[in-house]
């Protein structure tokens, strides 16, 4: 019987009896594992699907249906935490103490890394000198993959990041390095099964009714088996940690950290604290070694983001989880870089990647808790079109102040407000408050004035990262660790999209989310950013509002009610005096445009002969206005009408949403504002009437919209 694997490929169980003679030894005691052999040969029984769509596994409902109530689930999690009480924690001091007294081991590993990478670099130089660089790409790509594999988990993770960047690596390298995602060397199955029994304190046959006799995937830190729980029949993925992984990673980080000190001391071009970045990365890798922590990460991620129907987060089975064993819901799907396999399921790669981008924006900018390792092996397209997130070992958080500052930074970029962009780096914690940003402004202007010759949506994320990187190197910036992980997360997603469409732009796909947040978020920082975007030189930019609404309504969470009420509260708040003055002027203009536009439309609807008789052949009609001014009035009226139409056509729009706004309008500030608007309109129309009576030609040019 075949099992459907995460990569979408069939996997056959071994023939009966093929593993019956396996013997393992521990503590000098040898025993025949006949029960284990029977277990791996068993045929999983059919389990009814609990989630929509075939092959979705045990589903979110499994936590309640089969694992009892919330209290029992918390108790199971507490027991899992107790099993992981001795999990390792990253400590540079302990690593220095440990390896500082083992110079020969450190030297041996240093030579191993230097010889492996140095010989590879030498071959590339020889190829370039002989004109064979392109011809030998495939050979060198295979060699690099094998080098990373031999050097172990730390370098495997480096290769995983490179495998998603077609703008950095040639195709041959991408194809070879992508095999690092789950085609790593495995460790013996008996060691894995023994680890499960040792960690959970139960024999294998009392936990599972069946388990694959060999791993279905090998990750950098562990390997995964497909199994079926004995007590419920759920099909699950069981991840088992590699033996000796802590020793290997600890030594590598000890060496890399030493290199970081040298970079900080001697490489002036890099202004960031390299050691701090290494420590942050190492800390997160060590967190990945604690599978209970990973399970808790998955639970939190599911609570925040799996409310969307197109996002799937597997459930955790706490009774069968420990520091080195993680049991979670099995998910069938195809990796996002396997375009043909996804299309064979009737899905579009870009649709699934766009789901990932929208979810990532929520992670980065809404809740601040994000998946920091979204390589193709951790993102699956399920047969029913959902995006499944796997591997929650490496997570990070965006500080609350930085979330708003990032959105504001995009607004300032659109407005080409480089002074404000430079000041944003204080809020983003790139610069200390005592640093003068005035020298930075010309550098930002030089880059973005050139880059923004096209629209912002035409920029790809890498262009911005590279451009900002050139600025960062010149000035005393200190890129915080969370921001480096954000860049990695978004560049990975853009890299995945580029497989399917070389012209894909992350910023264009992100516009609806940014527009929705600007229009609906009551955060004061974002409200100020919206005002900056809509008003310039005392005039309201209706085209910007129309564009925001057009983009914002593409976001499924956009609500016309949320877009209207916060804006009015801002307008009528105690700090809205200056804004009320601007809005009063604009309301008068709009009302005049509607009134005079109606007159112009009525005049144009009259047949030529009666019109000539009524107005004595006056070519200007009933209004003493130039054609340019008439066109301006009608254009403003039509634009405002289109904006109202956009609001009306938004999902969940109901005239009843205006009721809260009517309550707001009953406030004293609103009545005062209404009085000023009515007074202004009356004066404006009276002036127009007097102009028509006296037939005075309009002074000045038509207003600029």
Automatic annotation (TrEMBL):
CDD domains, from UniProt? ABC1_ADCK3-like
Which Pfam families does the annotation name?
Answer: ABC1
Q: Which species expresses this protein natively?
A: Carya illinoinensis
Chain ranges of the Protein kinase domain: 210-540
> Organism's domain of life?
Eukaryota
Tell me its family: Belongs to the protein kinase superfamily. ADCK protein kinase family.
Q: What is this protein called?
A: Protein kinase domain-containing protein
GO molecular function, one example?
A: protein kinase activity
